[in-house]
Amino acid sequence: MHEALARAEREGAAPGAEFRFATARQPFRRPRAGGDPVSLLIALSAALFVAIGAWHAADAAYLHAKAWLGQQLLLDAWHKSGTLNRAVKPWPWADTHPVARLVVPAHGIELLVLAGANGRTLAWGPGHVESTASPGTAGNAVVTAHRDTHFAFLRDLVAGDRIVVETAARSMRSYRVERTLVADHRELRLPADDRATTLSLVTCYPFDAIDPGTPLRYAVIARGE
Fold it and tell me: Per CATH, is 2-17+34-224 categorized as 2.40.260.10?
């Protein structure tokens, strides 16, 4: 289980890794003669911080818009797959497709889970970690997503919360959150992939961290009812 998640992270699936902090370059202007150098430096510093903040806000808005649009396209593909009884790509060049629908009634969450958990997949939605059990079936199904978009709600889940998974075959499976945990990704130990029906939702931690390279992971462990 740990090896499967580690392999997914090596392929660029570290949840939250798409978040970036960039700076904007400002043109240099020679100060006018007689100006106060200290006041000028303060003014230039303030302008630079404003530019950085605007860039940061625009970048975050783009990621959220991309995440929302991806889920709309995935929902359309999900409905078509149910009608055609086969996997349907959300767009012609996609290298993935929806494999399950994840619903958390108490928090108004409804997400389509994609096949695979590489960096490209997580830009559009939660990804199912290959070599783990399929969501809704016996064994431990591991699903990962970015902390600042699709899995931001994980921080609000508590023991006893209900999670419903709709499989590709359109069967429904209900889970209850058993516990949450925080661990270094090199030491994260998820439940064994045995016959018990388990769902593990994993993202980066802390949720509000600016650094995309944090080694910590936040996991929600839910057991089938």
Answer: yes
